[in-house]
Amino acid sequence: MTIRERTEEQEFATFSPYAAFSRNSRGRDREEEPCDIRTVYQRDRDRILHSKSFRRLKQKTQVFLIPEGDHYRTRLTHTLEVSQLSRTIAKALRLNEDLVDAIALGHDLGHTPFGHAGERALNAVCPFGFAHYEQSVRVVELLEKGGEGLNLTWEVRDGIRNHRTSGTPYTLEGQIVRYCDKIAYINHDIDDAERAGILREEDIPEESRRIIGDTTRKRLNTLIHDVVEHSEGRGSIAMSDRMESAMKYLRAFMFQHVYCNNVAKREEDKAVRMIQELYHFYNGQPELLPEEYQYLMKEKGEAQERVVCDYIAGMTDSYSIHKYKELFVPESWQG
User: Fold this and answer.
1) Concatenated DSSP letters for 31-98?
2) pTM
């Protein structure tokens, strides 16, 4: 018996009957020889962790565009926080930690530079539309490894595709990540907003503070405990109606006072224009795209507009600024 097979047997002995067992995965689009050490979900997690798209998350905006300070979240730190929260819940519920880890680490791989501003910019100009959760799946199915993708399992791709608010993940592990994505960004965005001086703890609605907590630590503790309590021994992941309502109210407050705040978004219009000008430039001169994107059009038959979006969406904040200067700003003007 291999180490992998022993691990799979341990899953059947210790996991909840509602867990996604590694041996029961629906598999990959391209069949592969099993690893003798790692389960399929462990392999998926490792492939995501070692991908170029994952490394680029460290230089992609979460909320604050090019913040002045070392402690603001990036898309990478958000991803790691989602992973940590998800694994905590999965362990408590005896679900598959490796699967939640893979989904959490991959859920934002398709995010654009400059956060949701970049996403809106591409969605407005691309005839196919643009949504980061769909792009994340496109990254792992096609864009990574020179157009071959990572060949991840069906369960991981389903969890990535359905992590958005309106999504319905098939596995409980995917449902955990869907909740933890929101739990993470609401709480760390409060922390970043307070650091930026655009929000004080006292500004948060009193009812939200009373129900969920008046510090980041208390809020996370309350929300995680509520999910565990209302999901244990059940075939779905849920919160109490009272807690879910309070979290939705807090999320709406954040949209009004932080996500649309002039301080957080004062440079956003510039970012949108920059992303759209890059799109129009490369769509007009696709021959200037890097070779790997030329390959997608010529050998894979991918639509030009979609491939231009692929290239721009894959850029980090700093690289998109660099390309914009290179293409549109006279060299003598660059300081």
Assistant:
1) --PPPSSS-HHHHHHHHHHTSHHHHHGGGSBSSSSS-SSSSS-BHHHHHHHHHHHHHHHHHHTT--HH
2) 0.95
